[in-house]
């Protein structure tokens, strides 16, 4: 009996000593795992789509493609709050007074546009998930609530400057960074157009000078603000 067991053990050792054995076992295990994933997907009728989640928020927020700048186009591209029919506005009194000095990073944009939307901090580059606004004369300006809501964050950040976050309900929120002279606090309720702070500076984007960094989220997913803002 022991002799037979020794023969079997020796045979296994010889088999495992072959260079091709472990790669073959690995590939077999990978095939089994992939098969189980496909079966699970089929049962739930939800095929994996890595691009779907990344674009779902933007597709939800976008309205029909009408001519930008017209009253009809502005109305159709606006984001509406069901309870008040309120639309998302620019976080400044007059959009014509500011420039978008750094755009939102769009995966569908050209390589040049994508490069212009990368934020560099020290040796790290990250995609810009909002837009940065600054006056042509480099002066400060009032930063306004883009929509009525509740202040869910108001604090100083080491690299982003002072940050204010507003919850507008229905999964919508806006974030304002690089602020100075902040006028609101955590828990405050604000109306659209209320002054939140003044444009300031941040360590993260110090090369932009005095500016405000503005982000829009739908269901915690970033949305390109320029695709949903109403021209005012």
Automatic annotation (TrEMBL):
The lineage of its organism: Bacteria, Bacillati, Bacillota, Bacilli, Bacillales. This is M23 family metallopeptidase. Residues 50-75 are annotated as: Disordered. GO terms for molecular function: metalloendopeptidase activity. InterPro entries: Cell_wall_metabolism_enzyme (IPR050570), Dup_hybrid_motif (IPR011055), M23ase_b-sheet_dom (IPR016047). SUPFAM superfamilies: Duplicated hybrid motif. Residues 53-64 have a biased composition (Polar residues). The chain crosses the membrane at residues 20-40. It holds the Pfam family Peptidase_M23. Keywords: Membrane, Transmembrane, Transmembrane helix. Residues 128-225 form the M23ase beta-sheet core domain. It comes from the Bacteria. The keyword Glycosyltransferase does not apply. It comes from Paenibacillus alvei (Bacillus alvei).
């Amino acid at each position: 009996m022991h002799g037979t067991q020794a023969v079997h053990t020796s045979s296994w050792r010889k088999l495992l000593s072959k260079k091709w054995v472990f790669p073959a076992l690995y590939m077999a295990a990978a095939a089994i795992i992939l098969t189980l994933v496909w079966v699970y997907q089929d049962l739930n009728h939800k095929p994996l789509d890595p691009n779907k989640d990344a674009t779902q928020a933007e597709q939800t927020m976008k309205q029909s493609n009408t001519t930008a700048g017209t009253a009809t186009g502005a109305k159709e591209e606006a984001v509406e709050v069901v309870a008040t029919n309120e639309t998302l506005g620019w976080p400044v009194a007059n959009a014509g007074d500011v420039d978008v000095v750094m755009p939102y990073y769009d995966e569908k944009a050209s390589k040049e546009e994508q490069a212009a939307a990368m934020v560099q901090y020290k040796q790290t580059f990250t995609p810009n998930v909002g837009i940065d606004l600054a006056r042509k004369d480099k002066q400060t300006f009032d930063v306004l609530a883009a929509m009525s809501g509740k202040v869910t964050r108001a604090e100083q950040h080491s690299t982003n400057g002072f940050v204010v976050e507003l919850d507008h309900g229905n999964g919508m929120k806006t974030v304002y960074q690089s602020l100075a002279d902040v006028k609101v606090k955590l828990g405050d309720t604000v109306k659209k157009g209320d002054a939140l702070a003044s444009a300031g500076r941040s360590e993260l984007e110090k090369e932009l000078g005095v500016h405000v960094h503005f982000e829009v989220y739908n269901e915690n997913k970033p949305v390109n603000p320029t695709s949903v803002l109403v021209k005012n």
